[in-house]
Amino acid sequence: xxxxxxxxxxxxxxxxxxxxxxxxxxxxxxxxxxxxxxxxxxxxxxxxxxxxxxxxxxxxxxxxxxxxxxxxxxxxxxxxxxxxxxxxxxxxxxxxxxxxxxxxxxxxxxxxxxxxxxxxxxxxxxxxxxxxxxxxxxxxxxxxxxxxxxxx
Amino acid sequence: xxxxxxxxxxxxxxxxxxxxxxxxxxxxxxxxxxxxxxxxxxxxxxxxxxxxxxxxxxxxxxxxxxxxxxxxxxxxxxxxxxxxxxxxxxxxxxxxxxxxxxxxxxxxxxxxxxxxxxxxxxxxxxxxxxxxxxxxxxxxxxxxxxxxxxxx
DNA sequence: TTCGCAATTGCTGCCAGGTCGCAACTGCGC
DNA sequence: GCGCAGTTGCGACCTGGCAGCAATTGCGAA
Lengths: 152, 152
What we know:
By secondary structure, chain A is α+β, with helices and mostly antiparallel strands. Helices cover 43% and strands 18% of the residues of chain A. Chain A is built from five helices and seven strands. Chain A has a three-stranded antiparallel β-sheet with strand order 1-3-2. In chain A, strands 5-4-7 form a three-stranded mixed β-sheet, with no helix packed on it. In chain A, strand 2 (84-88) and strand 3 (94-98) form a beta hairpin. In chain A, helix 2 crosses helix 3. Mean pLDDT of chain A is 89; it is low at 1-8. The A-B interface holds A 88, 90, 106, 108-109, 115, 117, 121-125, 128-129, 132-138, 141-149, 152 and B 88, 90, 106, 108-109, 115, 117, 121-125, 128-129, 132-138, 141-149, 152. The structure holds a DNA duplex.
């Protein structure tokens, strides 16, 4: 079977990014394991917000024996390395996405819908929290709750 | 034993507030039960952030048979009536406090410390979310995470 | 190539926080 | 003081996640 770099360039871009991350992992004394690679594929394969459970399901579709706790441990590791962000969207499980797709989150208390918003919207809040309390807000890790336009 | 309205005026102020809430409950077709009264006493008795578990413990110190699920159900009801706010402070359990003591929350990701901040700090965020997405932010119900001055 | 060993994994068991269904009990309007 | 809808106690259950441990495995060095 020939290489398919011509027909699937997007996948190869992801592939390179994945190898970059694994190189970083190795540089920190970590290892490039199949589970790790598959998890990164799942993360790079879509830009959305995925729960640990969803990511585990996707990893398992290729390697059924990968355990949920392995996924949790690797997500933790990847977050520590700054590759991904984890976000608690209100009630449900924590969600994970690539750090490169950084943004804030508006989550409706009623219907649960989620809207991604640019970081700039938090500018004033970030500045006043720093000025008044010395507190450094990270707008990627929490959800701003309220009512969406439909539910009001 | 004589009434002690002279020596403990604060408790009587709470007492009146509690009766007001129970009147509201009755007006909505609800009932004034001992469990409900004790829960309100626990809520009015301190201005802090209390978890369901803590509130249940306090209620049980007066009525040992009150079940945790009863506390949860009553907290839900009181929140629906607008008497209290519930807030998820990051990882831990949800916390509850009187709606009259409304404020936002800065929670440190590292040490877990929590700082209460005035609603005004969210003004710009609230306005831009409404203008750009029609989204009505409720600043009392979520925690803004980041790093506190000590942990940076 | 092989070796050694620390990193990683799969697994089981456990925990916290909270919800649900149901039968029994009880405020409270009449 | 009756009746019944609202409420309660109880136990089972659920989700999300972490911890300990023995077995496995990358991978740098020889």
